[in-house]
Predict the structure.
Amino acid sequence: MRPPISERKLVFLLGSVQLLLTLDFTLVLPLGPDFAKALAIPTSKLGLVAASYNAAEAVVGIAGAFFLDRFDRRRTLAVALTGLVIGTAASGFATGLVSLVATRVLAGAFGGVAETLVYTIVIDAVVPGRRGRAIGAIASTTAVASVLGVPAGLELARLGGWRVPFFTLAALGTVFVAAAISLLPPQRVHLSAQQTPLRAVLRRSVVRLGITCMAIGTIAHYTLVPNISAYVQFNRGYPRDRLGLIYMVGGGFVFGTIRIAGWLTDRYAAPSIALFGTALYATVLIFGFVFPVAAIPVVVVFVGFMISSSFRFVPMRTLMSRVPGPAERARFMSVEAAVDSAAAATGAMLGAQILSEHPDHSLAGIGELALLAIAMTLVYSALCYSVEHQVRAHVVGAAPCPGE
């Protein structure tokens, strides 16, 4: 019998797995202009590459809602990570838009399941009073990816070509699969609890409202995310050889602030923290995209964009963790991940439809897209308060977790 793992070690191990998942998705975006040039893909269509990953996550997330709570979470995580490694390695062999999209679909299908299980295992193990900090620690892998992973990937692409980062990630993924299998104890506690039908879970008003809220916020965010690299290079004139610097600086700030967001969420009302993030997000978009001020450095705009994202999404994810019971948690989070991925794909495709490309490769319509993102984010922030009200009113019919 494998001994139990401490909460801190568990969070660190799953945070490492989440780092791989984050890199597999986020590294594709700054590499976009590189492989677009090599594969003759228009820069205005880069959002489709990101959308393919998210669309696959959404489809598999819906399927996972019917079976994920029936198996040991550790074994399922190992299978999902193995599939991700295969899809990522295959991306390095892409020869055009169609083949690249196909391999990203494969990676997204398994990556979505793996991410769902990472957060499910953490929420199972951590009591609500410390859950915001635990979720913030897992989410901080985005910052680590920006500080270390993205700059390293960009440098590998510069030295060896855009395919090298994909092969490197696949090799790292193999190591993480072995670590997850050998260090993570079996995760079977949820199997002893009574299973709630998925239909009954989805009937709850707080579930429908919360998922709608998450979808709106994600659509808003991903209208812009896939186009950030092209925007700063071709619209703002930021040099390609210094692109890794802004990801490094931005990630360094986010690594600290995302943990602060988790701590504040545990201490204060989640919607208030989300509202602060929304105000910061709107300010960044107005002065960085809608009416860009030349005196504001690109790195400041990028840092503000990333920090505001932390303060918007960590509170809501923490709030939603209080909705399901342990026997329905993986299925609930699989549905949530499916909707979130579909929303990300929708946002990316929406951005690709609204934006167009000038002869100098700069993006036209970025200001209008930013205004749309602001409007949707304001709706998202307002809905957070409604979700909090329903959670506090004990509308949720799920069984409580240990310590809840």
Observations:
- The CA atoms of residues 19 and 26 lie 10 Å apart.
- Strands lie at 356-357, 363-364.
- The first strand starts at residue 356 and ends at 357.
